[in-house]
Amino acid sequence: MELKKIYKIFQNSSGVSIDTRTIKQNNIFFSIKGPNFNGNKFANEAIKKGAIYAIVDEEMSSVVNSKKIIVVKDCLKTLSDLANFHRMKMNSKILAITGSNGKTTTKELINLVLSQKYNTIYTTGNLNNHIGVPLTLLRINNKTEITVLEMGASGLNEINHLCNISKPDYAYISNFGNAHLEGFGNIEGVIKGKSELYEHIFESAGTVFYNCDDKTQKMKLKQYKNKFSFGLDEGNIKYTIKKFKKTIELECQGQNYKSSLYGIHNCQNIMAAVLVGDYFGVKKELIKKGIKSYNPKNKRSQIIMTSTNKIFLDAYNANPSSMEAALIHFSNSNEKNKIIIMGDMFELGKDSLHYHQNIINLCKKIDFRKIFIVGEIFSKTNYSEEFISKLNVNKLIDHLKSFTIKNSCILVKGSRGIELEKIINYL
């Protein structure tokens, strides 16, 4: 079926779905395939649950209603093409955000600020890949003024692909760090891969927002004119950090911006939201309101108070850059009885053990009451006998059941796959 015909069906639908568990009445179901699943097998179920059509890329031997089955060559490509077609029909401006660390927090902060004045949509959860980006674009409607689009990548040409689908008007790269090295190869690969977003913006003469304290970004954007920046000593907007250890307070343009977030890295995330808000003409009081209202509940930069302990939970993502930043911040805090619980960092390639050892070496230089390391990679490092090593989170839980941690401040940091959030009930 021609894309235009599918688009007409989409216009009369209630949206698209790739998951029969969350499908809504009059959705179009796309039978996406992956390494461990085949959506074609669920086409019948989708129709039974109310889908007006199921788009498949395998011939169906038995269907509930053959008139509701649309066969295409490639479901994922059709989804991407449909998203691009829709994006070009809509008037919404697209602000694309990528980076090694902080892109999700920054995305949510920017959306909260912009939504004070504009009708916005933004990437929900971690739907930031070749499937998630099309799904987000297909949520744009005639009322949407700005779409805040998070783009994730673990290798070269992935950001390029997402840009070809979304055609962003604005760009922000949070930073270049040691993340997804397995796919990018090295830090140079990370810079090249993330900078694919800049290349698209350059070609379309779009607008770049950036942190001019980041020397790499400053150099990359040296010749580009259509840019706006924030910085401590220079930039379109200058700011001063008043506090960042327990909560953040920034001074900028004669205003104090307060947030429940903590850490020097989140100062930059907040300033990105201030910069974008200022550019789009959001009143300063509304920018302050948007930033102050942010309360992360996604295992990122969460502060959890128990009856006896204070927990800094950052267990959604971890790489050498973010792990080091978290440890240094925690070390510099005024908290007492500091305990660290760290989980393996994934997707670091052949030098993974080296990066984990560097983190261990850093911990040896810092005074903490107790350090737990969780995961097979950390277990292979050269750590001292003061460290408590467990191969997985379940073994750690068994250990925590044997005694009680009280009156302590605990940093919980690791990759999502380690599932460190499971230990919260035992702290």
Helices, strands, pairings?
Blueprint: H1 3-11, E1 16-17, E2 28-30, E3 33-34, E4 37-38, H2 43-48, E5 53-56, E6 69-71, H3 75-89, E7 93-98, H4 103-114, E8 120-122, H5 132-137, E9 146-150, H6 158-166, E10 170-173, H7 181-184, H8 187-194, H9 196-204, E11 207-211, H10 215-220, E12 227-231, E13 237-243, E14 248-252, E15 255-259, H11 264-279, H12 284-292, E16 302-305, E17 310-314, H13 320-332, E18 338-343, H14 352-365, E19 370-374, H15 376-379, E20 387-390, H16 393-400, E21 409-413
Parallel strand pairs: 1-2, 2-5, 5-6, 7-9, 7-10, 8-9, 10-11, 11-12, 12-13, 17-21, 18-19, 18-21, 19-20
Antiparallel strand pairs: 3-4, 13-14, 14-15, 16-17
Helix pairs in contact: 4-11, 4-12, 11-12, 13-14
Short overview:
The chain has helices at 3-11, 43-48, 75-89, 103-114, 132-137, 158-166, 181-184, 187-194, 196-204, 215-220, 264-279, 284-292, 320-332, 352-365, 376-379, 393-400, and strands spanning 16-17, 28-30, 33-34, 37-38, 53-56, 69-71, 93-98, 120-122, 146-150, 170-173, 207-211, 227-231, 237-243, 248-252, 255-259, 302-305, 310-314, 338-343, 370-374, 387-390, 409-413.
Number of DSSP helical runs: 16
Question: Which CATH architecture of the largest domain?
Answer: 3-Layer(aba) Sandwich
Q: For the terminal residues, how far apart are their CA atoms? A: 56 Å
Number of strands: 21
- CATH evolutionary superfamily of the largest domain: Mur-like, catalytic domain
Q: Look at the structure and give the mean pLDDT.
A: 92
CATH top level of the largest domain?
Alpha Beta
Helix content: 25-40%
Let me know the largest β-sheet. 9 strands, mixed
Overall morphology: globular
User: Which percent band covers the strand fraction?
Assistant: 15-25%
Tell me the domain tally. Answer: 3
**Rg computed from alpha carbons, rounded to a whole number of angstroms:** 23 Å
Stated plainly, the CATH topology of the largest domain is called: UDP-N-acetylmuramoyl-L-alanine:D-glutamate ligase
Give the low-confidence spans. none
Q: Structural class per helix/strand content?
A: alpha/beta
Strand order of the main beta sheet, please? 8-9-7-10-11-12-13-14-15
